[in-house]
Amino acid sequence: EDKVVQSPLSLVVHEGDTVTLNCSYEVTNFRSLLWYKQEKKAPTFLFMLTSSGIEKKSGRLSSILDKKELFSILNITATQTGDSAVYLCAVAENDYKLSFGAGTTVTVRA
Amino acid sequence: DADVTQTPRNRITKTGKRIMLECSQTKGHDRMYWYRQDPGLGLRLIYYSFDVKDINKGEISDGYSVSRQAQAKFSLSLESAIPNQTALYFCATSDLYGYSYNEQFFGPGTRLTVL
């Protein structure tokens, strides 16, 4: 059974649009939820969320966690072509193991 | 200079061949990981190591073995490669005591094709 489910699997938007990505999870012991951006090859870290309702922001990207409903969202505002990537969500149940979702592929057209 | 490096970056091999993927890191982290990534399945953990003498199986270790030669080096071997081991392989490291303590740092990946 999937522990981490991301939706949608893919989407195509135009520059300037706002994108909302979803990540739902079901784990026994929740420690943190992480978002990564994967362009071409290596995933790069975006955010780590541990507490409900506290938004984390970095430029045009923001993310929030709901530990009661077991999901997180990643928002990208004023999208640019450089935002085109696969966005991965991962949940940590302890201090070393990450369970990854399948990812959401975002394509931003000029 | 990259903190986590992997060699080779691309490899094509034949069924039954032995192959080794290597990972080196300069981050000084004790923890190292090997993942594989397949389309639609996300990243799945093959093996992980807390230090040179502590190596553990992940969720999909069958058909793979690893060696932790030093704190900075962690190798993944396929003793007898098979076509369903065709995938993108990532090495990663982590620091238990960092601010983002669950953050893992990934290498550039090795694309392996088994014919």
Number of helices of chain B: 0
What is the SS-derived class of chain A?
Answer: mainly beta
The major β-sheet of chain B equals: 7 strands, mixed
From the N-terminal CA to the C-terminal CA of chain B, the straight-line distance is 33 Å
Apparent shape of chain B: globular
Textual characterization of the structure:
The complex is a heterodimer of chains A (110) and B (115). Chain A has 110 residues and is an all-beta fold. Chain A contains no helices and eleven strands. In chain A, the strands form two sheets. In chain A, strands 2, 4, 5, 9, 10 and 11 form a six-stranded mixed β-sheet that branches. With 115 residues, chain B is mainly β. Chain B is 0% helix and 57% strand. Chain B is built from no helices and eleven strands. Chain B has strands at residues 4-7, 10-13, 19-25, 31-38, 42-51, 54-57, 65-70, 73-78, 87-94, 104-106, 110-114. In chain B, strand 4 and strand 5 form a beta hairpin. Chain B is globular. Chain B starts with a strand and ends with a strand. Chain A binds chain B through residues 4, 9, 31-32, 34, 41-45, 48, 88, 90, 92, 95-98, 100-103, and chain B through 4, 31, 33, 40-45, 48, 50, 58, 88, 90, 94, 96, 100-109.
